[in-house]
């Protein structure tokens, strides 16, 4: 094991798995798709796909280690369906093997509802925020952020082109 790998393991508390970026991005996109299904709501969904980013804790230069992040949101729902979507997730996340680590108001002035969950087997994290500002002209939405743990890219991978 290289010194960089030892250092990464010490900083993270686990040995980052060697994994190709497209596989991890596909896995995170799949989780996002399932979460949308579990919400059981219909509305518009933002387009961006999951993408690799620097694993800041061990490799801020984005050369060897990476995480995959997928921020997206669902909006233009009928009134009342926002709370239905959050309630569905409160019920289904534990049924689907996720552990809810927070379910309460965000630490902001508005105190919007927030659910944070972790998948104990894969270590993916999920943050859901119902942004219901109540301010005229602002779009009400559920913001979703799916994150992977840190992985090590296979030897020869150029993460800036992955």
From TrEMBL:
<protein>
    <recommendedName>
        <fullName>Lipoprotein</fullName>
    </recommendedName>
</protein>
């Amino acid at each position: 094991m290289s010194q960089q790998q030892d250092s990464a393991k010490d900083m993270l508390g686990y040995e980052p798995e060697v994994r190709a970026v497209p596989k991890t991005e596909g896995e995170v996109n799949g989780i996002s798709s399932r979460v949308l299904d579990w919400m059981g709501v219909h509305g518009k969904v933002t387009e961006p796909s999951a993408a690799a980013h620097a694993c800041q804790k061990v490799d801020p230069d984005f050369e060897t280690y990476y995480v995959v992040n997928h921020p997206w949101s669902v909006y233009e729902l009928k009134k009342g369906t926002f709370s239905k979507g959050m309630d569905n997730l409160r019920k289904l996340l534990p049924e689907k093997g996720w552990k809810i680590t927070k379910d309460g108001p965000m630490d902001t002035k508005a105190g919007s509802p927030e659910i944070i969950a972790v998948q104990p087997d894969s270590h993916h994290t999920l943050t859901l925020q119902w942004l219901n500002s109540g301010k005229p002209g602002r779009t009400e939405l559920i913001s979703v952020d799916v994150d992977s743990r840190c992985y090590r890219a296979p030897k020869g991978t150029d993460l800036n082109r992955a």
